[in-house]
Amino acid sequence: MDDLALTDKVSNFIRKNFFVVILASLGMIFFVYGLIGLLGSASKSEDIAIEPSGQEKTTETITVDVEGSVVKPGVYLIRLDSRVKDALIAASGLGNDADRDWTAKNLNMAAKVSDGSKIYIPRLGESVQADVSNSGIVGNTGSISINSSGAQELDSLPGIGPVTAEKIISSRPYGSINDLLDKKVVSEKVFNQIKDKISTN
Questions:
Q1: Second label for 201, Cα 20 to 30 Å away, from 96, 119, 125, 146?
Q2: Terminal C-alpha separation, the chain
Q3: What does the pLDDT read at residue 58?
């Protein structure tokens, strides 16, 4: 009897409050769907991997050895397009006992520096080694090969710019340095400036 009475009461309540019950049911359904959607979007956001933009530009560097009368002699990493002046700045400049007259006369501050180059600043009264070029840059052999050196190394030679450097490369191979004249790659004036600084090795 009690169960029947309870059922009747519930039925009467539903009939009297039909719209309220419907609205409450719909509200509960929307609430459940909304909760499921919220949890689903949160889960997706956790799965999104943060990728690097790939737009960051890496700066290419070269290694040079700066020795002699400089404040901080040593091996330095500098930008690919650096000049002799930049290499000296990396070494904190000339030392107090640097032969500044020799440096001013022989060191081309605007010359491009190639990877593996050595820049040596003599001290006052010091005899400069024979393999030091007029630009003050010394390579492993003391000369630049016109058969194997890159455009940047060739560009560091006096009187040689990017265009002539590419011309030297495109006219390879060379049996002797005089081939630069025979093939009309450089003028006689430029050849006389670079003949002591180049080789075919």
A1: 119
A2: 115
A3: 55
Task: Give the containing element (helix H, strand E) for 184.
Answer: none
The DSSP annotation for 66-116 comes to EEESBSS-EEEEEETT-BHHHHHHHTTSB-TTB-HHHHHHH--TTSBPPTT
Question: Can you read off the two tokens belonging to residue 177?
Answer: 């340095």
3-state secondary structure of 169: helix
Structure confidence at residue 163 (pLDDT): 92
The residue-averaged pLDDT of 101-105 equals 84
As a whole number of angstroms, the distance between CA 67 and CA 61 comes to: 19
Instruction: Decide if domain 61-199 falls under CATH 1.10.150.320.
Output: yes
Strand order in 118-121's β-sheet? 74-79, 61-68, 118-121, 137-138
What are the boundaries of each domain within the chain?
Answer: 2-47, 61-199
Q: CA–CA separation, 179 vs 87, rounded Å?
A: 33
